[in-house]
Design goal:
The complex is a heterodimer of chains A (591) and B (192). Chain A contains 20 helices and 23 strands. Chain A has 591 residues and is α/β, with parallel strands linked by helices. Chain A has a seven-stranded mixed β-sheet with strand order 3-2-4-5-7-6-12. A six-stranded parallel β-sheet of chain A has the order 15-14-16-17-19-18, with helices on both faces. Chain A has a four-stranded mixed β-sheet with strand order 9-11-10-13, sandwiched between helices. Chain A is globular, with a radius of gyration of 27 Å. The N and C termini of chain A lie far apart (55 Å). With 192 residues, chain B is α/β, with parallel strands linked by helices. The mean pLDDT of chain B is 93. Chain B has one domain: 3-Layer(aba) Sandwich (Pyruvate-ferredoxin Oxidoreductase, domain 3). In chain B, helix 2 links the parallel strand 4 and strand 5. The chains are: A alpha/beta (591), B alpha/beta (192). The interface between A and B is large, with 62 and 53 residues.
Amino acid sequence: MKEILSGNEAIARGAFEAGCLVASAYPGTPSTEILENVIRYREINASWAPNEKVALEVAIGACFGGARALACMKHVGVNVAADPLFTASYTGVKAGLVLVVADDPEMHSSQDEQDSRHYARFAKVPMLEPADSQECKEFTKLAFELSEQFDTPVMLRSCTRISHGKSIVALGERVNDLPAPKLVKDAAKLVMLPGNARVRHPIVEARTVQLSGYGDTAALNRMELRSDEIGIICAGVTYQYVREALPEASVLKLGMVWPLPHNLIRDFAAKVKQLFVVEELDPFVEEQVKAMGIPCRGKDIISLCGELSPGRIRDAFAAAGLIAAPVKTTVAPEVLPPRPPNMCPGCPHRGLFYQLNRANAYVTGDIGCYTLGFMPPLNAMDTCVCMGASISNGSGIVRSLPPEEQRRVVAVIGDSTFLHTGVNSLMEMAWNKAPATVVILDNRITAMTGRQENPASGFTLDGEPAPEVNIPELCRVLGIKHVRVVDPYDLDATRLALEEEMNRPEPSVIITNRPCVLIKGAGRFEKGAVLEVDQGKCTGCKACLRIGCPAIEWKPDPSGTKGKAFIDPQLCTGCNVCQQLCKFNAIGGKQ
Amino acid sequence: MNDSVTNILLVGVGGQGILLASEILSEAFMLAGHEVKKSEIHGMSQRGGSVVSHVRFGNEVFSPVVPEGEGDILFGFELLETCRALPLLRPGAKVVVNDYRILPPSILLGQAEYPKGLAEKIKAQFPDFLLVDGQGLALAAGDVRAANTVLLGAVSKRLSIADEVWQQALEKMVPKKALEINLKAFALGRAL
């Protein structure tokens, strides 16, 4: 049977067919849908973890118990999970352990475009890289098998175009002859005290050599000989771009990007006149080929930044005089009004950021929809580094400032991000008495990645009711004395809360309590009465435009300089924030 | 350049149903026996931002992304976004556009104006051009939200795929309760 699957759906299918029993992840674009599809297979115990380190440790634990286990995350998630990853490389496995990492070249939805292939080399674990959805499924299965065969965690690297690209996949059956999980004591292998780890390290080094040898002959690395003028080493989606851009070139398609198949590379290099490595981001393969003493080119013609495409590869080879310049017959790009992402109409973050702007706050930000508080007209975010950094950045920045500037520092963080790594930061801030203000934007969901449950949302991945973390109580037990909850749709209450807590020379936390407008269900978002602008009363003062709501449109008057505001009834959620900005009572319930 | 592959671009604004339309297209191509690949971006860009979905079909498709300047059919859900995507097309490409505007932030705030005469401008560069009243026809079919299916119907006329294949793809991809309206909307678009 054949289906059109995204790379993420195919990885989930591969885990199912491989007999995977446990899966854990923290949502992160472009990896999120893997676990959301794994949960469709009831044979797999799949759940969200509060962060990637926990997710990987859950998977490692399951594998220690003899279950094939999967952990999934985006590239920056591996930074969080790096600690267990490096030591799991030493312990090896008791059943297949696969870590899927989805990179985001071009930073479509990320704060950096780090190249996670370095992690495979750094942690000394093999890494497979599929080039379409069929390979996503096959390589996931193979990754479980290699994990057991070579006693190692295996990384599977995807990227945005693979994870969110779709292609046709032939489905297979789930394996059913795997040994049942059970407890088997093996402390010398699994207790990484120095004495045991010293025994494991040479095993890890030998394993890398064995895997390189495996790659020399395994079908996942493939030589395609065409013209001998140009030979290209490539992997993953870049293979597809190369085939499109340079159809005559010979190709060595790597399915395993670490460790590299040295003999196969030498063999391929000997068969072509000019050798190139075409890879997105870093010269990861190129540097190793050069270290083998094989002359090759790559990053001298291909950019280190952003994602590749057939056109970018074609242009690079043409600019280097290696192929004829492509004929440019297209329409020239025109300067058009941009369309950046924006918070949704009725988003509970909007009122808070409006008041932060008015309060002249210096806002240390974090990762989530609310990072859009940076955009005009709200312009209320000054830093954003990584998950959880808002609070610790705020705690750090106040230490060096005079008191009148200290009060301006406000950290903003979402509920899911707070529970991801913000809790440690708040513990630090309370412990060391840093006088900053923290706002936890509790919209009861992990919104940016597409509305995933979190430990405070009251449900698990499969929709079952679950214990909820009590965020105000958690802040109090961490040592914050001043914790208050505010309705962010109430602009005066929000302003007052900010004013009081910012002026307090002690750590304090404000929690906003409105749910994300995109989550439905009892006790969650409820649409209010749609508003309209009374055109007779509107003076065209533009006060309502200052919140940047997509439901409010400024219509210039065709005859004069002044215009009036209009509210799109299709978009308005009745949050009433704009109504509170209108001094002329021109905004009210739709008649 | 790969002439055996047909390249379709679907463009518009997050929330317009572009993903569903591209899923139905891909399903139809697979059912008709073609190799299919498709690509789009999820996440931050979807919060009201520009969306581009690439669908490619033919005998052998490599890249999931349409190579620059090789788009054969542009399927525009919104006028400004359609204009933004024109550089991706090959000369003589077919363009089907929804006669619909969604204002970006700078225009909502009164800092810029929505460019005038976009439809005429597109038509001047790409004469194989069809302007569709997607919202109006969707309303006639029973639900304004089926505008994406009206457009899909209009695009389907420009592809050699049989009626029953489209029917099958719609039945598979559209939720049951919305199927009747969507079949009607598709037929209205296909009749244009």
